[in-house]
Input
Amino acid sequence: MFAVIDIEATGGKVGEERIIEIAIFLFNGKKIVDQFISLVQVDCEIPKFVQKLTGIKPSDLVNAPKFHEIAKRIIQITEDSVFVAHNASFDYRILRQEFYNLGYDFSRPVIDTIPLAEKFLPNLPAYGLATICKELEIINSKRHRADGDARATVKLLEILLEKDREKYIEGVYLKQPSVTGKHAFSKLIENLVKTIGVYYLFNSKGEVIYVGKSDQLRVRIDRHFLSTNEKAIALQKEVENIRIEETGSLLMAEILEHIELMSLKPKYNTPKDKFSLKLGLFTIPSEQKPLWDIRKIRHDKPLLLVESLKEGYRWLAEISKSLKMPVEKIVLPSHINGVKKELKKLKNDFGINLVNQSQKLERPVQAHAILQKLTYPENQMILIDAGNKIGTNTLYLIENYEFIGYSSVALVTDQTNWHLLKKKSTRVDKSVYLNSLIIKSLKDYKIKPIEFTTA
Output
């Protein structure tokens, strides 16, 4: 039995997407024997481009059930069936994430109709669902809606099954790791669903060929061994061993991953794996004043890295306010409107100590000094995060407004002794990127400062 599924989602970061519509057709190879179609109410924004693409507006979801209200029905209709979707990795990942949020491990055999279409329908110009429908004259009157796309996928699956005279799909294909969800390391990682940390993939020579991080290690590692693209298959052939390092927090995992990627340079990682913060804040020298810019990092060194333009505009709004200077005088013209928009959202009081406005500092030192005070309230700090075991915490040490090291500590008394922590800490090289990761987590209240002694 095949559970043919299509999902419409909010989009966004991996792990943060939410389902807004789901359609499931239970197909026995000849006809549809059951179905479930529903909009899904979410507690987050639906991006404008998603609303335009799907036609689903927030007002459409007001009376729709929440995911937990339809979860049981989804489990029932897909039970003892093969999960089928066009680009199944997307739909399956998002559905598993929704169940993960409820504390349930949703697992089904998975068929992706894309590689099967490539096998049984060679020489098509492309293998997106819209192109296949056009080439095979499959009617889909509800494109980019779960109902329409799922029905079209049912018809595609029916065609594929008819072309499969040697029963490849129900024989060889259904036994592959990408379908069964089982691979050589499944047993090793089966209890790591909610585990946060870093993982290392080794080849037969003991070389690290991939480093990654996740707050759902099993799900993330599974993707390496259940994917069917060319790069994934090449990686699968080389992996001989896996090592897991639990960190307890995603921040510590990201710090460790970045350090390891810069040091080990694994062959299967791409340059973009090293950085989740893609944009930098820069100052451009000027005769009268330095102008601030936000742009992608090339070869020059930024003062701070940020995740998005909006986040960068927020910082520049705070700089504008702290300098008591109009936005037009401190940022490039292309950023003025964005910074002004963020400036309106700021509270009157920052709640932190700013440099003395009457203090005359040479530019661009003044801008750098202001930014330091905006990022860290004090030049020496201890910031506390979750630890990798129960009863432990990870501490980050800040000195002269720079992240200098981290330490895992169990005893409360050890958490407040600066000199002892500095001796025991794992030191890190001065890095704008690592410093920016710490600053972002502090700004987002994911870590917090604690009192300490220097005596």
The CA atoms of residues 279 and 296 lie 5 Å apart. The two ends are 70 Å apart (CA to CA). The first strand starts at residue 2 and ends at 9. Confidence is low (pLDDT under 50) at residues 348-365.
